[in-house]
UniProtKB/TrEMBL annotation:
Highest classification ranks of the organism: Eukaryota, Viridiplantae, Streptophyta, Embryophyta, Tracheophyta
Protein name: ATP synthase subunit b, chloroplastic
InterPro entries in UniProt: ATP_synth_b/b'su_bac/chlpt (IPR002146)
Protein species of origin: Corbichonia decumbens
Keyword terms: ATP synthesis, CF(0), Chloroplast, Coiled coil, Hydrogen ion transport, Ion transport, Membrane, Plastid, Thylakoid, Transmembrane, Transmembrane helix, Transport
Quaternary structure, from the entry: F-type ATPases have 2 components, F(1) - the catalytic core - and F(0) - the membrane proton channel. F(1) has five subunits: alpha(3), beta(3), gamma(1), delta(1), epsilon(1). F(0) has four main subunits: a(1), b(1), b'(1) and c(10-14). The alpha and beta chains form an alternating ring which encloses part of the gamma chain. F(1) is attached to F(0) by a central stalk formed by the gamma and epsilon chains, while a peripheral stalk is formed by the delta, b and b' chains.
Length: 184
């Protein structure tokens, strides 16, 4: 305490300062200022500081509780999602198996349908070829018949004269007349 009073006495010995002076002893002044500030802070700030710390403590505890609740909900949702994922994977496997079966069935149906279509096309082709052959044969027959008929008419016309022609017509008329009497 002697230092504290010495510092005040020392202020009085400053000749240039008169009745007011500065204490240049930094250690002594800082110690006094610090002790006064700390005392004031402890006296007035103790309640405020404890309230601030209590509020901060409550916010931290509330945040921890909320975090724990959110964590619990997240774990619950994760379990539900895992269950749904497992269910979807099982359904996907079933669809995959059924899909492969369906693909094989469709493939066989397509192959069978293609064979039937090819068979029908082969039959149509054969029928068309047969029809075209018959038509070609008939055309050839008609041409041969026409050519033979023209050749026969040409031969008859060149060989027959009017008298022979009239006798042939009369003979034919007689034959038709005899045939008519037989049929009647």
């Amino acid at each position: 305490m002697k230092n504290v009073t010495d510092s005040f006495v020392f202020l009085g010995h400053w000749p240039s300062a008169g009745s007011f002076g500065f204490n240049t002893d930094i250690l002594a002044t800082n110690l006094i200022n610090l002790s006064v500030v700390i005392g004031v802070l402890i006296f007035f700030g103790k309640g405020v500081l404890s309230d601030l710390l209590d509020n901060r403590k409550q916010r931290i505890l509330n945040t921890i509780r909320n975090s724990e609740e959110l964590r619990g909900r997240a774990i619950e949702q994760l379990e539900k999602a895992r269950a749904r994922l497992k269910k979807v994977e099982i359904e996907a496997d079933q669809f995959r198996v059924n899909g492969y079966s369906e693909i094989e069935r469709e493939k066989m149906n397509l192959i069978n349908s293609t064979y039937k279509t090819l068979e029908q096309l082969e039959n149509y082709k054969n029928e068309t070829i047969y029809f075209e052959q018959q038509r070609a044969i008939n055309q050839v027959r008609q041409r041969v018949f026409q050519q033979a008929l023209q050749g026969a008419l040409g031969t008859l016309n060149s060989c027959l004269n009017n008298e022979l022609h009239l006798r042939t017509i009369n003979a034919n008329i007689g034959m038709f007349g005899a045939m008519k009497e037989i049929t009647d």
